[in-house]
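User: Predict structure, ligand manganese (II) ion.
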Amino acid sequence: MFNANYQQRREALRRKMTSGLILFPGNNEAPCNYPDNAYKFRQDSCFLYFFGINQPGMTGVIDIDSGDEYLFGDDVTMDDIIWMGPQPTVREMADSIRVGKSAPACEVKKIVSEALRQGRTVHYLPPYRHDTMLYLEDLLGIRAAELKAHVSMELTRAVIDLRSVKEPCEIEEIERACDIGYEMHTTAMRLCKPGVKEQYIAGIIDGIAASYGSMNSFATILSQNGETLHNHNHGNILEAGKLMLTDAGAETVNNYCSDFTRTVPVGGRFTNRQKDIYNIVVACHDHAIDFARPGQTWKEVHINVCKVLAQGLKDLGLMKGNVDEAVAAGAHALFMPHGLGHMMGMDVHDMEGLGQVYVGYDDETRPSSQFGLASLRMGRRLQEGFVITDEPGCYFIPALIDKWRSEHLFTDFLNYDVIETYKDFGGIRLEDDVLITATGSRFLGQKRIPLTVEEVEHIMNE
Ligand code: GLY
Ligand code: MN
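Assistant: Predicted complex:
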């Protein structure tokens, strides 16, 4: 049972804002190939956070100065009832979330126009759907192409502040998404055998999410070519000796996400070479959880994890020189060209639509432009209640190795002759979802998906 207090959230938002109107357009149906054949409806996460109504065609408005709250939308017609069954009225929906005023959708324009006429500020968040842009253009008289320049930073920052710290009901819901993710990943492990098509396994695990009335939290990544970070091509037949990387999660019916990655040996037994690299990534993964706590920045956690990676690769002869200097220079990014993790919540990359730099960084912790570190979506100081992914990886990307080698990059830190022999290795990523607690951090989900070499081989050979 998911039970958020939307009224309390709207009040908290209002207290963070100075004056004006706040406009929250909900999402509309998104047609796939003709208007009546739409993609599965997905409500806007901010609208959901403050208004909780999972229906297309709604708009929420908060008057910061008077405290009035409005829900706009059209009641269904008899024709709609015949095709879709009975639906709650807009007034009933407004009552369910304690919004005082409700009106037909066309009335939004009146209250927004009146506010603009009085010279009041109308705050809105960055739109990301084109129909929403056209709607805002019509309401505000700002051309769609110019809407971004007029987005309310005051609102953006207030919403990020609130949504970053997860409430107990949100954590419970994320854990429900994690439990579905557990079933998806353990199923993928059991099916991972030579001769099986990647697409078959991807389809089965997507079906698990669907069987809970959920959907995937993002398009499943499943490939024996895991060195391609976001490989959505599921066209290969699994081959013995390869590693299958699965990065997938579920989004619950209440729209909270999970995001997990596991990498397993096709056929169920790691080779020694695979074990060597795999165990380094396990050490990186566990190091993050040991190190993450309120007051620490996630950027520091990322950098420390990169040092564990570089030390492991040095021990294997792939890297050389001083580990701290190698990481400071960015040499390890040949093997891990991405960040350690991102915020997660209603969006798998939580609030990315509001501007990743505002979600993951602040005045104190600034983004880097260094290759690898520049891809760290979340860097700032951790607070109790943050939910973040911990997803270190180690990849052998032939094109990147060739490029760096030809440019003689980081020759003090990289043993290219040894690295060359790993070009057929593929890639490993391990990912869990982490809650920052008062004193440290913990993994989310009732059971941790098998992680160690022993746990993975055990479940694959049961
Ligand atoms: N799991 C996909 C991503 O984090 O980008
Ligand atoms: Mn992720």
